[in-house]
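Journal club side-thread
Mid-discussion, someone asked how the predicted structure for our own chain would compare to the paper's figures. Pasting it here so we can look after the session.
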Amino acid sequence: MSLLNKDDAMAHSLEKEFQYYLDHQSELLKKYNGRYVVIADSQILGDYSTEAEAVETTAKKREMGTFLVQKCEPGNSGYTQTFHSRVVFA
């Protein structure tokens, strides 16, 4: 029995799409560098110049949460973020 709530289940279901991106990043860069790719069912559904365009266009055909929009960039800059805080732990 799964204890995942709906949001956790949705995020978990997109892990497969993100892993597809990681596994094929070098070959995807050759074709889609700098563009936003839409991934679902371990395949590229389309590529777009903006993230908004990718989401809006794909959402007309597929339910939100069933596809991943990923900026195709070299390295990990397209899928990592750094947050800075002025919090001090003592």
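Post-session note: The chain has a mean pLDDT of 84.
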